[in-house]
Amino acid sequence: MTTDDWANSERITVLRVEFSELLRKSAAYSDELLDELIVKVVKCFPEPRTAHFSIGEDNSGEESQSDDSRKSSVCSEIPKPVVATPPTPSSEETLQNPLEIYKTDASRLSDDALLELLESKTIKHRDLEQKVGDLERAVKIRRRYIENRTRSPLAEIPFEGYNYEIVNRACCENVIGFTPIPTGVVGPLLLNGEAIHVPMATTEGTLLASTNRGCRVIMDSGGVEAFVLQDAMTRAPMVHFQELSEAVKFVKFIEDPRNFRVCKQKFESTTKFGKLLKIEPKLVETKVLLRFSASTGDAMGMNMVSKGADEVMKYLKAQFPAMDVLTVSGNYCADKKATEINWMKGRGKTVVASCTIPEKVVTNVLKTTVERMVEVGQNKCLLGSSMAGTIGGWNCHAANIVAAIFLATGQDAAQVVSSSMCLTTWTKTANGDLRVTCNMNCVEVGTVGGGTFLPSQKAALQMLKCSGGSRVEPGRNSKQLAQVICGTVVAGEISLLAALCTHTLVSSHMTFNRSKLNLYGTDNEKETPKEEDLYTTTLRIQPKNPGRKGGMEIRCDHIL
């Protein structure tokens, strides 16, 4: 067979298709893959062939060769079976430039070819999903690229079997996998007369065990009641004027109810569920901050309010051409920060939850007294926190519960910093019982949008009976989630304070939050101390007389 016949034969066309299918399923060549390729090559021929390597004249034009003529070849020195390699194609037959293929149909390229383009900085790994089409394959190629760049294996970060369709262009960019977090459940929490099991995702041992004890106390006490007092997400653009008089004129314009109605119409033209409640101007020098407050249905609402505010700013710019819109977010909102304005005015859901614990439950379950709980609680949460200069930190550990529920239900984890602002009060009632109340003025949550539609997070919301948007009453599901969070915070506060009163906090953490794994670095360090050397010490006591037998050895384990 001639070179042209070889390159253009139907068998080689089939072979190329087979190779292409295999390479698309493979991250890298391996012995197993090579064997499979050889098998497929053999299958492409109508009859068995023997590898032939000869020295001398070129006999490629011959269709066949007898066994006798092959005895002089060097093939006898090469292990069998080996398939003859096709001749090198001429320049006209050379494959198209990989970059040109990438521009037209990147899915035709092998993983290795794409990796070479990445390594040469010819293409960007951020574009892989769009160009390759197969999202999991894009993740796999990016992992190889990052492993090469960082010289750190990513095998322990799983990536297979995940639905990247719902993540792409929605939740995360430059994806290399996903991070599983242990998720547990506490409860039932008796909240507003309904028993609810609450999912919590955390890596902190003891947290769920302690919160679960708090749920039991609440159940034995008749439940916790919770209410949403206000529902308003905020965004605060900042504008600038050259003259103070112009800035003052602008503030008066905003404060005019007639102008607010126009702004409200502009705002609500951008959203189905968002309702503009108010715009609060704040003059500073020649700058003006505008704090937009709006209800946002079952969405947390940051994007909704930002979009509506941006539309209003276009209208205001037309009314005040000299105004310079510095930014759509001037930090007067304030987003993802523990701020006084959020504590005083609220942001998201303003929630209050309270539970009255009978004196006998305090004694029998919490193993302490009402008087001791009140004394420690007031001094810790009020005096100690105030001396620390806190903003919204008058509590035991509200952030623990908020973070765990946020992670489990697909909330914006960065908003834990403001959503966990909480004032916990401890009061002895006239009957000698203990009343515990949590005020949380900035619970920024939603049951639609963000990560709430991811499978695991959606299942967690379904456990709480508040997944998705409420068709009956928009906003009801997100309010339910806020009440669950505040009620669970009450449970966590009760149990932790009791542990502090009984001095069992340290011992409980030593039991449930005591991992000995990965304490001393990773395997790639030059020397890793043996665990037994770090946790064990031995004291040997020898007799004063060297000639006397005996002595004593004292061994102490787990000294840390």
UniProtKB/TrEMBL annotation:
<dbReference type="InterPro" id="IPR023074">
    <property type="entry name" value="HMG_CoA_Rdtase_cat_sf"/>
</dbReference>
<dbReference type="InterPro" id="IPR023076">
    <property type="entry name" value="HMG_CoA_Rdtase_CS"/>
</dbReference>
<protein>
    <recommendedName>
        <fullName>3-hydroxy-3-methylglutaryl-coenzyme A reductase</fullName>
        <ecNumber>1.1.1.34</ecNumber>
    </recommendedName>
</protein>
<dbReference type="InterPro" id="IPR009029">
    <property type="entry name" value="HMG_CoA_Rdtase_sub-bd_dom_sf"/>
</dbReference>
<dbReference type="InterPro" id="IPR002202">
    <property type="entry name" value="HMG_CoA_Rdtase"/>
</dbReference>
<dbReference type="GO" id="GO:0005778">
    <property type="term" value="C:peroxisomal membrane"/>
</dbReference>
<dbReference type="GO" id="GO:0008299">
    <property type="term" value="P:isoprenoid biosynthetic process"/>
</dbReference>
<keyword id="KW-0560">Oxidoreductase</keyword>
<feature type="region of interest" description="Disordered">
    <location>
        <begin position="52"/>
        <end position="96"/>
    </location>
</feature>
<dbReference type="InterPro" id="IPR023282">
    <property type="entry name" value="HMG_CoA_Rdtase_N"/>
</dbReference>
<comment type="similarity">
    <text>Belongs to the HMG-CoA reductase family.</text>
</comment>
<dbReference type="GO" id="GO:0015936">
    <property type="term" value="P:coenzyme A metabolic process"/>
</dbReference>
<dbReference type="Pfam" id="PF00368">
    <property type="entry name" value="HMG-CoA_red"/>
</dbReference>
<comment type="pathway">
    <text>Metabolic intermediate biosynthesis; (R)-mevalonate biosynthesis; (R)-mevalonate from acetyl-CoA: step 3/3.</text>
</comment>
<dbReference type="InterPro" id="IPR009023">
    <property type="entry name" value="HMG_CoA_Rdtase_NAD(P)-bd_sf"/>
</dbReference>
<dbReference type="GO" id="GO:0016126">
    <property type="term" value="P:sterol biosynthetic process"/>
</dbReference>
<keyword id="KW-0521">NADP</keyword>
<dbReference type="GO" id="GO:0005789">
    <property type="term" value="C:endoplasmic reticulum membrane"/>
</dbReference>
<dbReference type="InterPro" id="IPR004554">
    <property type="entry name" value="HMG_CoA_Rdtase_eu_arc"/>
</dbReference>
<dbReference type="GO" id="GO:0004420">
    <property type="term" value="F:hydroxymethylglutaryl-CoA reductase (NADPH) activity"/>
</dbReference>
